[in-house]
Structures are given as structure tokens and as C-alpha cells.
Amino acid sequence: MGRRHEAAEVKRMLSASRLVTLTGVGGVGKTRLALRVADEARRAFPDGVWLAELADLDNPTLLAQGVTEALEIRDHSSRPAMDILVDHLRDRQALIVLDNCEHLLEECARLADRLLRAAPRLRLLATSRQALGTAGEQSLAVPTLGLPDPGGPRPSLATLAQWDAVRLFVERAAAIVPGFELSEDNRDGVELICRRLDGIPLGIELAVVRLRALSVQQLLDRLDDRFRLLTTGSRTVLPRHQTLRALIDWSYELCTERERLLWARVSVFAGSLDLEAAEAVCSDEGIDREEILDLVTELVDKSVLLREEHPTAVRYRMLDTLRQYGRERLAASGEEAVRLRRHRDYYRGLAADARAALFGPAQVQWFTRLHLEHANLRTALEGCLAESGQTVCGLDMAADLLYHWITSYYLGEGRRWLDQALALCTEPDGSRARALWTNSWLAVIQSDTDAAAAMLEESRSLGTRLDLEPVLAYAALYSGMVAMYRGETRSAIALYEEAVARHRATGDPVGLALALIRLSLAHSFIGDSPRAIALGEESLEVCDAYGEGWHRAYTMMALGVDVWRQGDTARAAALEKESLTFNRSLDDPLGVGVNLEVLAWIAATEQDHSRAARLLGALGTLWHAIGAPLSGYGHLVHYHEECEAAVRRALGKPAFNAARKEGARLSYAEALEYALEDELPSGEAAGGRPSPLTPRESEIARLVARGLSNKEIASSLVIAQRTAEGHIEHILSKLGFTSRAQVAVWVAEQHRTTEADGERPPKDTV
Which residue ranges does the record assign to the HTH luxR-type domain (predicted)? Predict the structure, then answer.
């Protein structure tokens, strides 16, 4: 069933520690993994490998007796069972698997401590919802079974079949329905079933039983009512394993009253949450705010909440199966409406706080936080717009998130939210006026200038009628963008100048910086370099005064355009690369796209036509993903066209097409590396397939796949352990993975692909 990496990690841990505990949510496969490791390690324990099943042992005082029976010890004396057990194991080299310890946690911890002290060659492998908490214990959180990244490229049928969750499904289905195979007809259904069941082995196995009566598609259609459906399990296993609900009921009953209450309340969150959100939404009436941290810790220990490491903070996530269960409990308690309202109000406030902190040194942290909170923001917006008295709050919230929409891949979604909110909120007030000019910028970026112009006309009319100077300032700014896009440069300059004046008057540094950038680009476009440079430098001063980075990066991009037009390609490239470095850190695809454009133009000017063609190829992929070439900067399209024509003439059609295809094969990360470093990433020159990782990250990924720990990786590469951990965090983020096991699968696939393409893999590839 897979688990190769996890099994190797457990064996490594057992070699270093005499007590290893596998933790994880019920049904995730802790027992299965423990038994596999025990079987594979049998030769290392000449005195035997033993399984002590504790799940049906309700009386803690019978624990030692139960383990004695599991070891088949025949002792009819009246001595205490613990003494018998200690004497039996004292000189033996054995491995005991203590399965399902969570309901006897303290007793198991004491037993483990006593046995390990008395028997120096004994090893214990425990499975539990949470670690035993004894000295010298090592624990491994068993992840759910791996699945392909839903946002990544569609894997081949053969590759899909190698993912652990899919492999388990197919193996169990073949046992239920003879001749069942993964095919092009059922592959999507199988993958979605596994995904909806969170890759939990127990859930998958219970679902597959229904294939006796249902097709894959019918099973998928019925999974929304998963708890009612999955009722048939093997009669040979414990009752709680017969249904998913019974399993979760059992976990729920092991929690304290306050832990159950928090479990139910946390179910209103979508995706993940942080401690601050839990405190704001889940406290009061039964849980004090000061108790939340301890309760969260307990739910993490019990594997109800999963802990996620992020560069800025720790976050928590609940498997969808457990979240739905908690939601049912919340609804039954009568609290659901209250918690949903608290959730909505919290994220409405978060969006407003982010908008207020937009122009300052905490900018990137806010953008990152909003990205992590996207699922919760979406849920809050849905809640606002679904309740008649809250639609204006939803309109304001969607407008507050303007920079979240444009600095991420959510631009189209932002436009849809604003369109929906504007359709619901027709009152001619300030909220509508602001949302109109906000939505107009998204429309401009999407090249929908007619819709943008209509929204700006209404926004300007409302601003005039209500005497809203900020509205008039932004309406002028975005109207200038529409005019520039349409080739009406002089009108655009007049509108930008109006925007600059109005933003100065209102003291809005955000609008002022943005207007100065656009005015600089417009003057550059008509050949007025001195004015363009002066405006750009003024924008830099505004940004620097507030410690702001994003608008500063766009200012440098604009300055780079004019410096390139003046012929100083070296300085222009330096400006664009500095801008690109920031936009890459922010993961702003729009800014990155414009930076790559200018760098392509610079390369063509410097007669480096192959590099220009590769960058154009990479840009083709990027702009296709974004949905509009040079989004929001349509007046620069003619520079792109001139560059492409010149490079095509210089290289000739065959060489141009080859270089452009080479650039198109670069992943997003590799394209940025190439743009910044002037060299193709390792392996690309030979036509290798694109990888999202840098060469260093690829090296570390291969070491992860070999089963090395963070400490071992750091030692191998002579780097700090914290540096190694940072690289691994980036690897997981880029690949969209949550576990090292998924990295190992990905490395193996890259290895197979490399060999299929006739390339020689790196010597340390798994």
C-alpha cells in the first residue's frame, strides 16, 4: 500500500530510540504501518516481535495482564502481572507493538517506562492518537495517504496509480469486484473519492465496500452523506472500526467536555486557522479565551487538529471528515449561527485591518496571511452576502481585499465577489462608490475596459453627488488606466495628474504612489524621460517614507522601462531584477510578468536573442496562466511585439521557435531563476523537464527521499539545520505537499521521467 518512506523513518527512529509512538487521526493507518515495520524488522529481534492490542481493554488495571497474554507468557503464580512481564523481558531482545494506547495513555506511559528500565534490549512501538509523553520517546505523525496536487499538472494513468491512496482503493476494489482496474473512464472518480475521504485508509476501505452495489461515479455522488453511507465494515474488527462515524464517535468520547466544545466550534473554519482566530471565534460560553491555547494543544495531541508549520506562525487544520462531524455536533448544540456570525465578523475585521496596514513595513506579512486565510475569507464573504442585513458588509469586505485579489491568483474570484455584491447592494452610497472603482481595476487587469469604464462613470457620479474626494481621486486614476489602454495617452496623463492632485489633498499615500507610477509610465511612453524619472523618484520617496515594498517594486519596474528606452540596459536590468526579487517574494504574478517582459526587451536590445526568446517563451506560459497578456499595462504591448519581431528576424524561425519552447518548458520558479541569474537552471539546457525547485532545493529533495532527517541533511550539505528546515518548507510549499513522503514519491517520479527522456540522473537520486 505504499508508506515506504514512513516505514523507513519509523525503522530509523527505532534504531535511535527504544520507544517510538505513531500518532495520527483514527483510521489513518497507524496500526497498519506499525505492523508493517514490525514484520520487516523481525530479523533484528531474535526473541520475537509481539502485538498487544489494547483497544478492547477498558480496565486500566488489566493493562499489564493484557500485555502478558499477548506475549503468550504462561505463568500461573500469584505474582503481579507487571512483575511477571518484567522478569520475562529482562534479558530479551524483542519488539512489542502496543496498539491503540490513547484511552490508557497514562497507564501505557508507566508500563513503557517500567519495561524499558528493566529490559535494556527491549523496543516498544506504540500507536496512539497522541504521544505517551515519556522520557526518550520519539513520535511520528502518520499522514493520510498521498494524492496528486489538485492544482498541479494532470498525472498519467500509470503515475496516478502509484499514489498510495489510489493504490489502496484499487487493491481493495479488485478484492470486492473481481477484475476492477484503474482506467481512463474511472480515474477521475477514484481520485475524487480518495480526496473527499482525506486519503484516510479506513474511509477508503469502507467506501470501496459499496462497489458491490454502486459504480465509482455513483459512489462519488453519494459521498456527501458519507456518514450514512459508510456503514458496512468487516465483522472481524472492533465495532468502532465498522463505520467512520463509529470511529469518530470513539475519538470524540475520549475528549473532555471543553475539548468537544472546541472541536465543534472550530468546525466553522475552512482550510486552516491560527490561534488568534480560534481565540476570537471559539471563546465564551463554556470556554474562556485563556483556555483556548491549552485546548488547542490537547486537540493536536489527540490528532483532532493537525499542526502546520508556516514561516510566520503555526496554523492548525482539521481533516474534512472531522470538520463535518464537528459541524453536526455544533448544529445539534444550537450554536451554529452564533459561531458562523463570530467567524464572519472576525474575518471581516481582518480584511479591514489588512487594508489599513497595506502601505507599510508589515505589507508582505499581511499579504501572506491573507493568502493563508483565503478559504476563511471566502466563507466569510459567502456568509455576508447570504444574509440580507449583511450584504453591505460583504461589499466593503470584498473591496478591502483589493490587493489580496491582485497580488495572488484570485483576481477572477475577486471580480466575481465584487460583481455579486454590487448586484445585491444597489443603494447609491459610499460603499457602492468605493466598490465600483475597486472592481474597475480588476476589470482593467482583465482587459475588460468597457466594463471598467462603465463602473468608473457611476463611481465618479456618486463621488460628485456625495462629495467623496477619495472616490473621485481613485476614479480619476483608474479612468487614466482605461484611457492609456485605449491609446488616449494625453487624456490619460490629464487624468493621472488629477489623481495625483486629489490624492495629495486627501493624504492617501497608496493612491499617490500608484498615480505617480502610472504617470511616470505615461510620460516615458511619449518620450519625456526627465519627467518620467522625476515622477518615479518621487514615488520612491513616498514608498520609502512608509517602509513600503510592493508599490516601490512597481516604481522600479517603471523606472527600468524608461532607463531601457534611454539605452542604459545594464542599469535597467538591475532595476528590473530588484523589482522582480520583491515580486517573487510576494508571489505576485502580475508584477513578475511585467518584470520578465522588460528583461526580455533588454536582452533583445543587447543582442542576446536566445535569452530574449526563452524569456518570451516563459512569458507565454505565464500570461496564459494569468489570462491576459501584460494585464493592466496594455499600452506596453507594442514593445513586446517589437521585441518578438526583432528576435525572430535575428534568430530565424527554427532557432526562435526552439528557444521559445525551451523557455516555455521552464516552470514558474525556474523562469524567475533564469531571469535573475542569466543562466538556465541545471538540466534545462539539455531539454530536461521543468521542475519547480531550484538546484539546491532539488538536491535537498533527493536527500529527503533517501530518508535523511533535517539534522542529517544539514550535516551532509554543511549548512545550518534551520537553513535545511527552511529549504524543506519551501519545497513542500512549491510542490503543494504536506509530508516528506509526498516529496519522496515526487522525486521517484522525476527520476523515472528523467530516465525515460534518456538523461542521466544525479548520482544521489533515489
Answer: 686-751
